[in-house]
């Protein structure tokens, strides 16, 4: 049996990085879910133990009376605004439809025209009862009410010359006070960004010290088939003190901004973003979030932000905000020049070194190819060919190194016969042979190592690229998710390793990887080390468990890349590389005087010392 030692070294490093990355990510998610489940169980237990026991009819009657008294007190100068009939007003442009509610004068939900949900309807954002945006106002002496509890009775709408639409909701106080609150929304024809202008009359009474205490509740509903993978790719982002930062939802649960200025906060839910932006920075606050442990809730994350906005202490003040409800598309976000595009995962955390590769190489080529290729599966194939062309000089050197190693096989076999089981002496003579022949034994590792950042760049790119969402190719219905053509349900032993399915693109990636290993071993010297001998077989098996839950786009890319490798290896080894010329060149190199580098000298000295120590140990054992 034969193997390529250099390729194996690259495989081992690549496998280690794969397992390290996925183990670290999954461990964080699992620990967080377990902690949250324990906390919820404790809270429920305490709540049940402390629940008062009383007659249900009396409790209902008292509750209605108390609510009525509290509502009237909260209304204060906005008498009657605490009750009413909720009206829904729809505004639509070319990219979404927004349903506004008169209760709180806020968006009730946003429906994206160009994106389908799992039930073939349109994707809806901010559509749960939890979702809300409001701020508290002083309605009277010692009375405070959130705007989300008040009905804005007056509605005005207009269309501007540029095609933009405006809709205003007005809440007027009693005629004695003259106070009023107006929420004016501006929706442009082709933008996901909505402007919100808040005009408050009587602000010196309605707001305490001119500070607006705003609360934003947002619930990210499940939009993709794989909830676990969606949670893993969901993040909280913000710009604090003019610096962008983010947190993956499974690794922490809160962020305190202190008194630092905050430009915006947002939630990236793999393919969809929601942002709250202050035109003049928030003056501080905090944000908390929780990840529901129960998958039946179909909720990725629920977040609550409590933010302060300092306004002037005057009778009439204005506050400006923007709300973004749309796809997690880098180009769409980058046009606003607010650093929102940084929340798109083109390489983050320990893998941020691949972001420039995605930003300046992968993305421009992708955008160019999709401009004239209709199928995203074919775009991935052409992108793969481009990447292989880019690294072709390194690939050729690798194959040339493999050809030289093949030429040396007869001489290496003679060394094995000469030194038998003396591995140390064999290693020294083999290194000497490589040096004389001008062969770099690590030459085959370079392409394998160089493909590591490419793989992680594409892992980030394909996981965050909204173009792939819902794109079908061959048997895959969605290139942004794994293909689950082979389903075997919840079988405990199998599910713990593979899940409830087997991806066909994963199988093609594994089989082509195995073919590369077999071909490489046929071209290189024999290996006596049993661990290294079977490693080329083990690595493709690793890929089966690693790749099975990854997006089809990534496993399809890996399959195409492997097929290109096999074709190139065959053509270069059989039609381009001349083995007779290589042998003649190696003979010439042997005749030339050799100069040793300091590193080679130190290595030989160390090997000589080890050989001497081994010989002394053997002589001592004989005595």
Global geometry: elongated
Largest sheet: 9 strands, antiparallel
CATH class of the largest domain: Mainly Beta
Low-confidence stretches: 62-66
Number of domains: 2
Strand order of the largest sheet: 7-8-9-10-19-16-15-12-13
Give me the count of strands. 21
Distance between the termini: 39 Å
Question: Could you say what the CATH architecture of the largest domain is?
Answer: Distorted Sandwich
Total number of helical segments? 17
Description:
Residues 62-66 have low confidence and may be disordered. This protein has helices at residues 5-50, 56-75, 203-206, 227-232, 330-334, 355-370, 376-390, 392-407, 409-419, 423-437, 445-464, 492-495, 504-522, 530-547, 552-576, 579-591, 598-622; strands spanning 88-92, 96-101, 106-116, 122-125, 132-140, 143-146, 154-159, 165-172, 180-187, 193-201, 211-221, 234-240, 243-248, 254-258, 262-269, 272-282, 284-290, 299-310, 316-327, 486-487, 501-502. The chain starts with a helix and ends with a helix. A nine-stranded antiparallel sheet has the order 7-8-9-10-19-16-15-12-13. Strands 6-5-11-18-17-14 form a six-stranded antiparallel sheet. Strands 1-2-3-4 form a four-stranded antiparallel sheet, with no helix packed on it. It is 45% helix and 25% strand. The chain folds into two domains: 5-28 and 355-592, no CATH class; 81-344, Distorted Sandwich (Beta-galactosidase, Chain A, domain 5). The longest helix has 46 residues, at 5-50. Helix 1 (5-50) runs parallel beside helix 11, helix 1 (5-50) crosses helix 14 (530-547) and helix 7 (376-390) crosses helix 15 (552-576). Strand 3 (106-116) and strand 4 (122-125) form a beta hairpin. With 623 residues, it is α+β, with helices and mostly antiparallel strands.
């Amino acid at each position: 049996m034969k193997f390529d030692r250099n390729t194996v070294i690259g495989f081992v490093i690549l496998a280690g990085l794969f397992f390290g990355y996925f183990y670290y990510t999954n461990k964080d998610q699992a620990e967080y879910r377990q902690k949250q489940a324990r906390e919820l169980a404790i809270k429920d237990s305490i709540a049940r133990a402390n629940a008062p026991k009383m007659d249900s009819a009396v409790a209902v009657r008292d509750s209605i009376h108390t609510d009525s008294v509290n509502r009237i007190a909260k209304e204060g100068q906005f008498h009657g605004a605490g009750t009413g009939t909720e009206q829904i007003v729809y505004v639509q442009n070319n990219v979404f439809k927004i349903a506004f509610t008169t209760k709180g004068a806020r968006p009730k939900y946003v429906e994206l025209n160009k994106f389908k949900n799992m039930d073939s309807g349109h994707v809806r954002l901010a559509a749960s009862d939890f979702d809300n945006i409001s701020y508290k106002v002083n309605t009277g002496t010692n009375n405070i009410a959130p705007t989300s509890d008040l009905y804005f009775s007056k509605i005005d709408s207009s269309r501007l010359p540029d095609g933009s639409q405006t809709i205003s909701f007005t809440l007027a106080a009693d005629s004695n006070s003259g106070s009023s609150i107006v929420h004016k929304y501006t929706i442009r024809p082709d933008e996901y960004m909505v402007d919100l202008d808040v005009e408050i009359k009587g602000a010196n009474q309605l707001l305490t010290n001119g500070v607006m205490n705003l609360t934003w509740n947002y619930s990210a509903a499940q939009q993709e088939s794989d909830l676990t993978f969606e949670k893993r790719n969901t993040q909280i982002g913000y710009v604090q003190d003019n610096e962008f930062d983010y947190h993956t939802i499974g690794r922490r649960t809160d962020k305190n901004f202190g008194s630092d200025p905050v430009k915006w906060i947002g939630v990236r839910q793999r393919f969809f973003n929601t942002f709250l932006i202050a035109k003049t920075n928030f003056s501080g606050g905090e944000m908390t979030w929780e990840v529901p442990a129960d998958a039946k809730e179909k909720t990725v994350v629920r977040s609550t932000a409590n933010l302060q906005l300092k306004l002037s202490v005057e009778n009439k003040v204005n506050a400006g905000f923007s709300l973004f409800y749309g796809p997690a598309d880098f180009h769409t976000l980058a046009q606003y020049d607010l650093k929102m595009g940084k929340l798109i995962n083109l390489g983050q955390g320990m893998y941020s070194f691949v972001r420039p590769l995605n930003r300046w190489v992968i993305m421009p080529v992708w955008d160019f190819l999709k401009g004239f290729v209709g199928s995203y599966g074919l775009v991935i194939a052409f992108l793969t060919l481009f990447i292989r062309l880019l690294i072709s000089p390194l690939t050729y050197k690798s194959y040339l190194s493999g050809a030289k190693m093949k030429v040396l096989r007869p001489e290496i076999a003679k060394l094995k016969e000469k030194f038998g089981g003396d591995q140390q002496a064999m290693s020294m003579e083999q290194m000497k042979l490589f040096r004389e022949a001008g062969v770099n034994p690590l030459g085959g590792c370079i392409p394998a190592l160089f493909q590591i950042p490419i793989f992680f760049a594409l892992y980030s790119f394909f996981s965050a690229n909204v173009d792939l969402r819902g794109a079908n190719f061959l048997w895959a219905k969605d290139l942004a998710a794994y293909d689950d053509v082979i389903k075997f349900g919840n079988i405990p032993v199998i599910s713990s390793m593979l899940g409830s399915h087997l991806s066909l693109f994963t199988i093609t990636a594994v089989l082509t990887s195995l073919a590369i290993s077999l071909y490489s071993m046929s071209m290189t010297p024999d290996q006596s080390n049993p661990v290294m001998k079977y490693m080329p077989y083990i690595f493709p098996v690793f890929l089966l468990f690693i790749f099975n839950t990854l997006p089809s786009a990534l496993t399809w890319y890996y399959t195409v890349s492997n097929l290109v490798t096999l074709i190139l290896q065959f053509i270069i080894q059989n039609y381009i590389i001349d083995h007779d010329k290589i042998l003649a060149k190696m003979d010439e190199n042997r005749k030339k005087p050799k100069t040793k580098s300091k590193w080679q000298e130190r290595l030989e000295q160390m090997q000589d010392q080890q050989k001497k120590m081994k010989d002394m140990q053997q002589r001592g054992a004989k005595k």
